[in-house]
Design a protein that fits this description.
Two copies of one chain form a homodimer. Chain A has 15 helices and 17 strands. With 541 residues, the first copy, chain A, is α+β, with helices and mostly antiparallel strands. In chain A, strand 2 and strand 3 form a beta hairpin. At the A-B interface, strand 1, strand 2, helix 5, strand 7 and strand 8 of A face strand 1, helix 4, strand 7, strand 8 and strand 9 of B.
Chain lengths: 541, 541
């Protein structure tokens, strides 16, 4: 039989939704489509109680969290990512044979009231059990016991199945959605900025370099001379972005208000609870003349986000989540729950105070002199706020709310920030400050940083020159290291073009998505908020 | 006067919205907050016509696109990123002095009906003009004339100000929003997958390597031995992700349905209209037993997206946009408009056909033999579909709609795909196919690729071993290059763990966001769809 094109094209059935069984495109889908039919655990648990105790046939798919075998029946806790709660299933002992923690099962049974006095109101009387994905319960790395955070970090691909981590994933998803709505309602457009860049917005010492040849680092010359070898994919060295700010500024000129949530990178070796080498940052740029316009947007955005999250059941889940330390589950749970409630209240119930850097410095010095506080590092204007200083400032000025610290010294901030005194040229005054802010959470963690940007060509050119490294030689030393770094290794001409042609006063901010989330959920280390944390010496999976 | 902490904290005024003038945090914001008050061009243009011709005072901020000076008045076109249309402003000649293309201005005046017979219905009679951001009109790289796409690519930071590119940015933003709603409504959660990874999902030859020391590539040993030097930030070589699929699979196990839009990278030197080295990809993974479940989701998602976009005015803007070739503006515009209308119709008005790879191959061979088509490369089963073959298949089978090509040979697809015949072990049958699809747009461009994933531990382990390079030695040669590459250099144990513990049948897909956008907007080269394209030899800004 000869083939003719007109015979062959086959259309799949119209009007099917992804959840309906589909007419399959060809013979390979011989498996039953019934096996994966079933509800998630949240859906089953959230069923309205039936007053008359009518039996309700139910099919649920989930993972076995624990099994408790008694003589005449087995109690199995079933969970999945839809909720951090679990569902109690009752099985005949023979049904539970071979079942273990970690097994993925489909259960068919009756959703019925539990006898009075039980922890749960409803339970599943199982009639049929199908094992979808077996698991070796002995070897399964997530047992029903206390696992240290350090241990869990070694298995990120399985850690995400723990109730806390699954909740974090859902929470992040919801944050993205709420933030997207906030920005859309306020006229911002969402962008996909570049990740491989020529510029290193904050500091050349901490960028990752990108090369195309995995073996390039093994190739060298005996005399140590430079090698323009196979790794020069882009002709010159390129970096992973440390911030999308400069690129967002380009869009801002045309679109007035722009934002993004995108990955950023720091080749930072410091091992703290707040630092990782890869994190998704929320950044926004907008036309603005006053720093307070930026600060107000930040406050408004975060409060809107929390309001949106409160309207879901995620917060309720957070405070009722069982957090285990292996000994005092309930107590730990209560402690975390009250910590979280307090934190959310501090963020939402009051306007957030602001304080200038100078005022903060005065307070720190006064505290040192009066003996009200002891610091490892003596606070000085030139050196900026150390972590211990930030904690103190946040506590004293924030009183449980976040606090904006504004107007930092120019010499410790990047070159692109607008001077507080707009007549002042870059580097001409060592006491000069810039129109910027850091937002400190009550625990002292810097969660947002923002500023007005220098929008005037002549002032910005001057700052770039003043900060620039030329031929490896550092300039006259009148500028600080951070400021100097921020203009190293960069092709700044395109950035100056933005001021050369139709510039406009503007500013913006960057928010550490995961730092905020860690604070809101009471997870102290950012390495446990990010599913696959990358930091010095570690990049699993 | 001694400082006391209780005196200093200052609260900013409550209940301010970002658009209201704010009480500024301190003395630095001395500038008038009036300068940036004003409407965008779209808002002014979209005002409902006033039947009585009542004069309406208006303040608008935008960029001068063109100026036409006549003896008694000057006609100035004002535009911004809010719309690709522009607004006509009428100035006294003395007001227009010194104004040039690219200048950002604030105009205060009366929004009034234009005299009959004019191109526009309304115009702005300017009373006051303020220059916010001057521009040297002579040097401004965007003049009112034809600029080649090649030229525009050299100035990505300014190209984004052209009406087409500004529209593309808004369109991307809207796509993100529509897709987020689609996935949320269908129970998917949105994730932030890792960018720096250990695995190279598709092919080790095309990954970018990440190192922390920009000078690491200049360091080597004379004997060529390997160097565990300063660039080993993560202890071992790490790559920029080529796909988030493997990580999404880990989440899928717990969350059933997951998706992301995130950046992916290929160190691919091929210079075509469809390839760049960095692009944002939409990826999704879900529980599924039949390939058609995945295909139906793809079709449903894209149709929902287009429906959402049609409800905005973006599509109308697209087809009325002036596209210039310097000679025949109107004609070009009409050609593109009808092309776009045709493309949208083909995507939305019919169910999409599907065809197997074998059937497509038969059709190609028949076409070759019968002389119906001439190909540079003779179609063979082992070599897969070349671009010219894809174009032909898309044309013949798609008839203006996208077409799913399914069940490709196993040996030319990655190791993780589920065999069409589920009993067949990896590599045991050279004619074996896998449960996968490519979605070809009517122009032959592959815009989505998806498959069911091998969810069974024993089959997957076998495939990994069969594909693996061990000690640099290639195995028995029974597997193809692409298949082999896909398991090189990777730590697969964590991926096998996903099958070891509670595995579930599933599948997913990846969609080239910018490829689809290029097709929908009639922009033929992906380098002109992505604002800052990165490709071999080029990474500007």
């Amino acid at each position: 039989m000869r083939w003719t094109p007109s015979r062959l094209p086959r259309c799949r059935a119209q009007n099917r939704t992804p959840t309906q069984p589909a007419r399959t495109a060809s013979s390979y889908s011989s498996a039953s489509t019934l096996a994966l039919d079933g509800q998630d655990v949240a859906t089953v648990l959230d069923r309205k109680p039936d007053q008359h105790g009518t039996l309700q046939p139910t099919r649920v798919i989930g993972t076995v969290r624990t099994i408790r075998n008694q003589k005449r029946r087995s109690f199995v806790e079933i969970g999945d990512g839809s909720t951090s709660r679990s569902l109690q299933a009752l099985l005949e002992p023979h049904q539970a044979e071979g079942l273990g923690t970690g097994t993925l099962v489909a259960l068919i049974g009756t959703w019925q009231r539990s006898p009075p006095g039980k922890e749960q109101d409803y339970e599943l009387q199982v009639e049929e059990l199908n094992v979808i994905g077996p698991a070796d319960a002995e070897k399964y790395p997530l047992q029903k016991k206390f696992h240290s955070t350090e241990y869990l970090r070694t298995i990120p691909h399985l850690r995400l199945r723990t109730p806390l981590n699954a909740l974090l994933s859902r929470l992040k998803s919801e944050c993205d959605y709420q933030l997207a709505n906030y920005f859309r309602d306020h006229g911002f457009i969402r962008l996909q900025p570049p990740i491989i860049t020529s510029s290193d917005c904050e500091g050349a010492g901490e960028v990752f370099t990108v090369s195309s040849n995995p073996d390039a680092r093994h190739i060298g010359r005996a005399d140590g001379s430079s090698l323009d070898g196979p790794d020069q994919f882009f002709r010159e060295p390129k970096y992973l972005t440390v911030s999308s700010q400069l690129h967002l500024e380009a869009y801002m000129n045309e679109h007035t208000k722009v934002w993004t949530i995108s990955p950023t990178f720091r080749a930072d070796k410091s091992d703290t609870a707040r630092h990782v080498s890869e994190f998704w940052m929320l950044e926004a740029e907008m036309r603005a003349e006053a720093l307070s316009d930026i600060m107000t947007t930040v406050e408004d955005m975060i409060k809107h986000l929390l309001e949106g999250l409160r309207a879901t059941n995620l917060v309720q889940e957070l405070v009722t989540l069982k957090r285990r330390d292996g000994v005092k589950d309930v107590e730990i749970g209560q402690q975390v729950a009250s910590l979280i409630s307090e934190r959310w209240a501090g963020l939402t119930e009051r306007p957030w105070p602001s304080v200038t850097y100078s005022e903060a410095m005065e307070a720190l010095k006064y505290a040192t002199k009066s003996g009200a506080a002891e610091f490892k590092h003596f606070p000085t204007w030139q050196r900026g706020l150390q972590a211990e200083h930030e904690r103190y400032v946040a506590k004293i000025f924030g009183q449980g709310s976040p606090v904006f610290v504004t107007e930092y010294p120019q010499l410790i901030k990047p070159f692109y920030m607008l001077p507080s005194n707009r007549e002042s040229w870059y580097g001409s005054d060592k006491r000069a400050t810039v129109a910027c802010f850091d937002l400190l959470l009550p625990d002292g963690c810097e969660v947002v940083g923002g500023s007005l940007r220098e929008h005037r060509l002549d002032y910005l050119s001057h700052a770039v020159q003043k900060c620039g490294l030329k031929d490896g030689k550092i300039d006259d030393g009148s500028v600080g290291l951070e400021a100097r770094r921020s203009s190293e290794n960069s092709n700044r001409e395109w950035y100056l073009d933005l001021r050369r042609y139709g510039s406009v006063p503007h500013g913006g901010f960057g928010m550490g998505f995961d730092r905020l989330l860690g604070y809101l959920t009471g997870v102290p280390n950012i390495k446990d908020v990010i599913t696959w944390p990358r930091y010095h010496g570690r990049c699993d999976c």
